Amino acid sequence: QVQPVESGGGLVQAGGSLRLSCSASGSTFSINDMGWYRQAPGKQRDLVAAITSGGYTNYADSVKGRFTISRDSAKNTMYLQMNSLKPEDTAVYYCYVMYGSISYKFWGQGTQVTVSS
Fold this sequence. Notes:
The chain is built from no helices and eleven strands. With about 120 residues, it is mostly beta strands. Strand 4 and strand 5 form a beta hairpin.
């Protein structure tokens, strides 16, 4: 399947860490950009971090210095290491994948991250 699959969400106390994974497969096209968005209840879906096929990264200001995005191209997998988590990081986290030159994001089903105070 071309839709990626997230894993690694859960419940953690403030100050703790989680690592999310996003696995993509099933396409004959090479993977281009990948990234993470999050959506809290009643709010819009916002970009958290993104990474290009060349390894360039981009972060939302709210997570800079705390989150790290990376990818393992051999495994078609992307990661989001989240440290120093805060209650305001609570949201459903969605990963996306873009294949080849297709200007379309294929979205995962989302994984819940809950940070308790």
